[in-house]
Amino acid sequence: MVQAMRSRPDVIYAEPNYIRHKLTVPNDPRYPEQWALHNTAQDGGLAGNDIKAEQAWDKTTGSRNIVVGVVDEGIDISHPDLKDNIWTNPAEIPNNGVDDDGDAGRSAALRSVAESNSASTKLFNEAFVLMQYFGYLQRNPNDPPDTDYSGYNFWLAKLNQFNGDYIAAEMVKAFISSTEYRQRFGPS
Fold first, then answer.
1. Is residue 25 within 8 Å of residue 31, measured between CB atoms?
2. What is the pTM (predicted TM-score) of this model?
3. Fewer CB near the last or first residue (10 Å), C or N of the chain?
4. Mean pLDDT for the stretch of residues 146-166
5. Contact 35, 42 (CB under 8 A)
6. What counts of helices (H) and strands (E) characterise the chain?
7. Domain residue limits, the chain
8. pLDDT digits (tens, 9 = 90+) for 36-92
9. How far apart are the first and last CA of the chain?
10. Measured distance CA(16)–CA(81) in Å, rounded
């Protein structure tokens, strides 16, 4: 059909009408509640104000060649979504009490950093403020109007004043009631 249309002298341009279908969505029964992944205005949210996860999943759902490290003692390694995807070091024999791959020094150093309360609080505070920019304002902290990280530094200092207690610091409330947020996304 397209070729026939292209051959007509009164047609300037013709291409197929591609039909697209969603390829991948999670089978998680609580997925519809996760507005950050796909916002359909559930719970009074703003439709489309999400991270566009479904569009990303249509391109890829990951690769076993990519390893992501997460330092989190609260992970449930038996969770159905994770249990077959947890990476283990093939050079280590589990629970044999021996450093099979000779990385004890590096492991001890990383563990001491991961278990350090001061490092943990500092990194949490930095990550939390960064996520407020990515999540609520959907921009980098050095994008206009804050081209010098001044806004990020302000919020980080505020969170540090409250020792990382973002509830007491009213961080989320401050971001969603900010002038920038309301101008870009409507009233909160």
1. yes
2. 0.41
3. N
4. 88
5. yes
6. 7, 0
7. 113-188
8. 888 888 877 788 888 888 888 888 877 778 777 766 667 788 888 788 888 777 888
9. 49
10. 38
